[in-house]
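Re-run with default settings, no changes from the original entry. Doing this only to confirm the output is reproducible before filing.
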Amino acid sequence: MSSDSDTYSYQGWLISDHFWKRALAVLAYSIIGQLMLAVIVGVVVVIFTVITVFVFGMAGPV
């Protein structure tokens, strides 16, 4: 086995022997997770906004 190859047969970045590959994998997972949560929260906010506009109207009480 050469010194350049990883210890494990699975070649994913999260279990790589190289620090920078592991660090980038963790950063990428974090960014993707944050984007997914932001999209979910954004959709919920838009839904509640639309419901509020239909219930109370755009101009408010006249």
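The chain has a mean pLDDT of 85. Residues 14-56 form one domain.
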